[in-house]
Amino acid sequence: MRHNKKFNHLGRKSAHRQSMLSNMAVSLIKHKRITTTTAKAKALQVYVEPLLTKAKDDTTHSRRLVFSELQDKETVAELFRDVAQKIAARPGGYTRILRTGFRLGDNAEMCIIELVDYNENMLKEKAAKKATRTRRAGGKKKAEAAATEAPKAAKTTETPKAEVVEEVAAE
Predict the structure, then answer these.
(1) Alpha-carbon distances, residue 149 vs 35, 136, 146, 163 (angstroms)
(2) Residue 36, SS3 per DSSP
(3) What is the pLDDT of residue 133?
(4) pLDDT value at position 127?
(5) Which of 123, 124, 105, 106 is nearest to 114 (CA)?
(6) Contact between residue 92 and residue 49 where contact means Cβ atoms under 8 Å apart
(7) Is the pTM of this model over 0.85?
(8) How far apart are CA 98 and CA 121, in angstroms?
(9) What is the distance between the alpha carbons of residues 87 and 94, in angstroms, rounded to a whole number?
(10) pLDDT for residue 22
(11) pLDDT at position 124, please?
């Protein structure tokens, strides 16, 4: 029976697979973006996201757990120093897989896997998209809100003028 055996073995023995995923995770953390096959990227995503979650809690225990997986002191330091601060507010989904086409030699599907908070182009597009987003159903509500705020605005402008006059008269 193959209960709970869902992960991709990637055509390798377990030790080779573990070391390959560890090396790919180190490269991803160092360079913030790597190009690989889609199958490896999906396996790497499952491997690296729990490590990034552990990095959000900067304790000696979590550093040791991450180091036991990555075996690279400089990468662990960069992960806890730089990457963890950028992903602190994010509840998950730290990586993004972008398909790029097929490799010429063996026609393997290729992709780019990257850390989400480090792609400046996508962050700019997301900010621009939020600013221009409108909803058609909100037109009536906005008109009613503007009508109710107009008398309030008129009242607030009259009140300070009266106070200014009283202060001038008192002096």
Answers:
(1) 54, 21, 5, 22
(2) strand
(3) 64
(4) 78
(5) 123
(6) yes
(7) no
(8) 14
(9) 7
(10) 98
(11) 81
Tokens of 57: 């809690």
Is residue 58 within 8 Å of residue 89, measured between CB atoms? no
The pair of three-digit structure tokens given for residue 46, joined into one six-digit string: 């499952």
What is the per-residue pLDDT for 125?
Answer: 83
Q: Residues of the chain whose pLDDT is less than 50?
A: 159, 168
Look at the block and give the residue holding tokens 């809100």.
Answer: 145
Structure tokens given for 49: 């996201």
Task: Supply the pLDDT for residue 106.
Answer: 97
Give the H or E element holding residue 21. Answer: helix 14-31
If you search the block for the tokens 């757990």, which residue do you land on? Answer: 65
Between CA 171 and CA 166 the distance in angstroms is 9
CA distance 100 to 34: 12
One-letter amino acid of 20: M
Q: Which tokens sit at 142?
A: 């906005």
Measured between alpha carbons, how far is 91 from 152 in angstroms, rounded to an integer? 40
Q: Which two tokens stand for residue 63?
A: 């550093």
